[in-house]
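Marked as duplicate of an earlier ticket. Keeping the data here for the record.
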Amino acid sequence: MSLFVFGAFVLLIAVTLSRGLRVVPQGYEYTVERFGKYRGTLEPGLHVLVPFVDSIGRRMNMMEQVLDVPRQEVITKDNAIVGIDAVVFFQVLDAAKAAYEVDRMQLAVINLTMTNIRTVVGALDLDESLSKRDEINHRLLKVVDDATSPWGIKVTRIEIKDIRPPADIVDAMGRQMKAERLKRASILEAEGARQAAILRAEGEKQAVMLDAEGRREAAFRDAEGRERAAEAEARATTLVSNAIASGNVNALNYFIAQKYVEAFKAVSSADNQKVILLPYEGTALLGALGGIGELARAAVGGGAAPKPKPATTDSPAGAPPPPFDTLPRGFPPSAP
């Protein structure tokens, strides 16, 4: 009998200790109830309770949690139906409020998020719904966080995972995108052709200007050359006239011989001349060249040119005509 009492006493002590001692793990908080009424909250660590009086009410997870919001069909402002799913990140800040202010807290957060997704996306058209995800997330976060604050919950993030339009709208969007890209390509090609035409016209303009400038410079150079040649011709003529006036006939012979040689060269170099008829004997040209030589020797020696010999009429028949420097003023001689 005493053994039975001892065993019961040990069992009572064990039950008392198990109900009086509580260890709360890190990241959790337990609510304490006394006869069913909330008395306090146990933080992580070892705690002593009044056995059979105090009990653990709710075990609340104080870490940040994530909830998957199921996909739902939402009608946009322009009556397009899109499928949207999202995720919600939240954290319990007040264990007592989260335990006793709302029942089935996670389900409440999911339903609250789904209803606000319909409200926010329904105020936007399809294009805005697809392009303004950050704005949708921000508006959802503000609305849901304000609604869950009385529950001791802090909603940290709400992210839209996917927005999926119907298949026919996706095809229409693809065709629209293709048309837009073709339009931009056509505009770029037209702009390129325009720039090419402008550059080509500018290049032609520059070429014409440079060509005109070159022709102007060439004409100026030609005129300058003709002017200098005329000046040299005039100076030569003046020198010849002065030489003749001073009695030096060799200067006149030089001038006439030069013209004679140039005329003979022009006649002999013509392409259509096959037979050349010389009206004078070839020795006349040699005589003219001899006169030029005497003139050159006189110029180099510094002495006066030799006096021309008077013409005689007793030359033997068949003798060659005298050179240019001995010809009378009646040059050229008459044909025999």
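See parent ticket for discussion. The first helix runs from residue 2 to 20.
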